[in-house]
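S.,

Sequence below, as promised.
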Amino acid sequence: MRSDKRADDEFRPVKIELNVVKSALGSCYFEMGKTAVIAATYGPQDVKPKHLEKSDRGVLACNYNMLPFSVAGDRKRPGYDRRSVEISKVVRESLEPAIFMEEYPKCIIRVDMQILQADAGTRVVAINAASLALACAGISMRGLVSAVSAGRANGKILVDLTKEEEDAPDAIDVPVAILTKTGEITLLQMDGIASVDEMKKIVKQATVACEKLGLMQAEALKNGIHSI
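The prediction came back faster than expected:
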């Protein structure tokens, strides 16, 4: 049994609230366990600076940031850093396959993600929030993107690792995102070393969890608020 009493294939409790930022076209508060993020969508807007403009398709800009008080212990240094830039790119590449970018030529769509509280899985929680924020904004999409981390800790294959499990001596962390309508994987990363068989099991567990999460996201769009 895991320290928080979850089954090996179970993700942490989820809470979703939509349109929480009134100044944004669409927004989402997404909480998974003790990790919480707000994502807000702005645009489509004119591209500035102009040299980034694309004549045949839109541009998606994603900005991921952890607030100074989001981490336990030492206060995080304010502002963007190398990790923020890297995860911003990861989120953008995870979401782009879901958006009909060709419908937004010469425009930019911005998604800002602020991590309010961090306790493992911040990038996948940010992807889930951003996907819903885009949907709330009415951005033309092929479907929602759902994301969950899976991996190995303490000799077991687990879904949605906690910070404690991520710090295990044998830990492997594998963030996975899928386009729920087609099952297409839009994100697959790995931190650690795993055998081929282990990776197959990890990816399978993660995709099943993403499918379950996708149903919750769809329900949230219908009802506005969802928690479990």
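The helical segments are 82-95, 122-136, 163-166, 196-223.

Coffee later?
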